[in-house]
Design a protein that fits this description.
- By secondary structure, the protein is an alpha/beta fold.
- 40% of the residues lie in helices and 15% in strands.
- A ten-stranded mixed β-sheet has the order 10-19-18-17-16-15-14-11-12-13, with helices on both faces.
- α10 (275-286) links the parallel β11 (263-267) and β12 (291-297).
- α10 crosses α17 (459-477) and α17 (459-477) crosses α19 (510-522).
- The protein is elongated and about 85 Å long.
- The structure holds ligand NAX, adenosine-5'-diphosphate and potassium ion (K).
- Adenosine-5'-diphosphate binds at residues 369, 396, 432-434, 436, 450-452, 454-455, 457-461, 463, 492.
- Homotetramer.
- K(+) binds at residues 78, 138, 174.
């Protein structure tokens, strides 16, 4: 579809193409303007969109169990959509009650409001008369919201959030900023959000997720040409199973040998943090990497050997505090012997000289945890500028702020933050979170599906190992770095989802997570 400099095959189905696209409010406005300029009547599109929404509501909330539906109507076309939904559900036999706390409506919305009233559907300015409804539809604001909700709408939204009935938001939960996902003072806490036409970027920002509920895309057949005309080459994309699987699993030639399948060096662990090294090793194991070497302080070598019999465990001299003091690789081996190096989990900041050494190597380097903390101490940007080879940084928001104190705050706009960090540093930056975002200097990928089961000590270590193993293999197969990092993030979160399905969200400790990684590949 798009003219991406990417190894991904041209995606085939419309569904797959559409589900990768992510837009800002302005881009959506421009795309809609093209459709209307092409001759599509606005009212016809509203009918079509609302018909699709009504159909999904009937599937999810059958009249037998949900006889009465409350519809919240705003002044713009989001409200117009809601009124058409109200009318269609009325004709399907539901009891409909409308709340519209606005006196001035856009023309098409006003016209639909008039018709709804003429059908005898009650329309109130207050929310209280809707208290007995079994489900609500939130059509207050869509991507046209420009400022925080003022009285009385803010109070109506707060009241609605106190009630326990399910809420379906049309396009976005009203009160959420379309681009940053910020809650503008107050917002509807939806059970479902039906995003219309194309994914709005705000729905993929962590700060919106408590409000979005289950998100699904309602495809109303936006012509691909109109999307292409506005986005040209898309800078921001959603990771889909197809995009991830285009690079995974990494195919092997029948006549390959272990050194052709990538040799990863992990540098991790300390006497204080042994488990992190083991988890990183187990993550790397699942990647299928041909050779795995793990450098750890001498004193914890037996522990690693017991857990990872296939790995070459390199015991290194250690500081008094039990951190690696210096890398002591086996004879005839130096850092050029490896296809990739992953460094950081459990190191402690006492291992600073090690980081200096790996920064000077010409191998692709993945830094996580204390690797990032030491990099921040060394000065992120100037240190990375001296590097000859690619670097992948995998911070969570706290580490990100230490690394990039002068960029966009990741708590206000994660996607803008990760883009800025990649642009400044030249590194591939993977910002961890509920919706992990991965950027290089040109593109951003967002992982749209995960589970809070992963919010648990050690799950990031598993990702570092997995990522390291994949990058070591990708290097030998010439797969671009950004794609493989995005695929690793997808794989990791899918393992969490599978594990949580089997064992509940409480049952996914980091070791268990490593045991589910292979199941993801088997089931895709
Ligand atoms: N009618 C159609 O053909 C289509 C409609 N769609 C729907 O239309 C929506 C976008 O419509 P609009 O552009 O009318 O936007 P909204 O329905 O979000 O409403 C914006 C209107 O409210 C005003 N406003 C913004 N913030 C406000 C605030 N805090 N307090 C009070 N007023 C405020 C604006 O000045 C504008 O008039 C989409 O989200 C979607 O629901 C499209 O998705 C699909 C096509
Ligand atoms: N609420 C959440 N939903 C989904 N994934 C999450 C959530 N919280 C954390 N994660 C994921 O869990 C991992 C945590 O990594 P990290 O913060 O480095 O922890 P640790 O260093 O203890 O391993 C990351 O991959 C992150 O994306
Ligand atoms: K809405």
């Amino acid at each position: 579809m798009f003219n991406l400099e990417s190894p991904l095959p041209n995606t085939t189905t419309r569904h797959e193409q559409i589900s990768r696209v992510v837009v800002t409010a302005q881009q959506m406005r421009d795309i809609e303007a093209r459709i209307f300029a092409g001759g599509m009547p606005v009212a016809a599109l509203m009918e079509k969109v609302a018909g699709l929404i009504a159909r999904r509501i009937i599937e999810l909330y059958p009249r037998s169990h949900f006889p009465c539906i409350g519809i919240l109507v705003g002044p713009g076309h989001n409200g117009g959509d809601a009124l058409v939904v109200a009318r269609e559900l009325h004709f399907q036999g539901y009891d409909i009650v409308v709340c519209c706390p606005f006196s001035k409506l856009k023309d098409l919305t006003a016209q639909n409001a008039q018709y709804v009233k003429s059908l005898g559907i009650p329309v109130y300015e207050a929310l209280e008369p809707l208290a007995k409804c079994a489900v609500f539809v939130d059509g207050l604001f869509g991507f046209g919201l420009e400022r925080s909700l003022a009285s009385p709408v803010d109070r109506i939204v707060d009241q609605l959030n106190e009630w326990s009935q399910p809420v379906v938001s049309i396009d976005l939960p009203s009160g959420i900023h379309t681009d940053t996902g910020e809650v503008l003072e107050t917002a509807v806490q939806a059970t479902q959000t039906f995003c219309l036409g194309l994914w709005k970027i705000g729905l993929l920002q962590d700060q919106a997720l408590d409000y979005v509920g289950q998100a699904e895309l309602i495809d109303f057949d936006i012509p691909i040409a109109d999307i292409q005309a506005v986005l040209e080459s898309p800078k921001i994309q959603r990771i889909t199973p197809q995009s991830a699987i285009a690079t995974l699993p990494l195919k092997r030639s029948p006549v390959t040998h272990k050194y052709k399948q990538g040799h990863l060096l992990l540098i991790c662990g300390s006497r204080r943090y042994t488990g992190g090294a083991i988890l990183t090793g187990l993550g790397a194991r699942a990647s299928g990497v041909g050779m795995l070497s793990i450098a750890v302080p001498e004193s914890i070598k037996p522990l690693l050997s017991a857990q990872l019999p296939e790995a070459l465990i390199v015991g290194c001299p250690e500081t008094a505090s039990g951190a690696i003091a210096q890398l002591q690789l086996p004879e005839k081996t130096d850092l050029r012997s490896f296809d990739a190096i992953a460094c950081g989990p459990g190191l402690t900041v006492d291992a600073k000289p090690i980081l200096q050494e790996v920064m000077n190597s010409d191998r692709p380097l993945i830094l996580d945890a204390d690797g990032l903390n030491i990099l921040a101490q060394m000065g992120t940007i100037p240190t990375l500028q001296r590097r000859q080879a690619p670097t992948v940084l995998t911070p969570h928001a706290g580490e990100f702020k230490r690394l990039f104190p002068d960029t966009v705050d990741p708590t206000s706009d994660r996607i803008a933050a990760v883009r800025a960090a990649a642009a400044q540093s030249g590194a591939v930056v993977l910002l961890k979170g509920a919706r992990t975002a991965i950027a290089d200097i040109d593109y951003v990928w967002i992982n749209p599906e995960s589970t809070p089961a992963l919010a648990r000590g050690g799950s990031g270590d598993v990702l570092t190992g997995l990522l390291g193993g994949l990058i070591a293999q990708a290097t030998t197969k010439h797969i671009p770095l950004l794609e493989i990092v995005a695929s690793a993030a997808w794989w990791h979160s899918q393992a969490g989802i599978l594990a949580a399905r089997d064992r509940t969200e409480m049952g996914v400790d980091a070791f268990t997570l490593t045991q589910y990684l292979i199941s993801v590949m088997r089931s895709n």
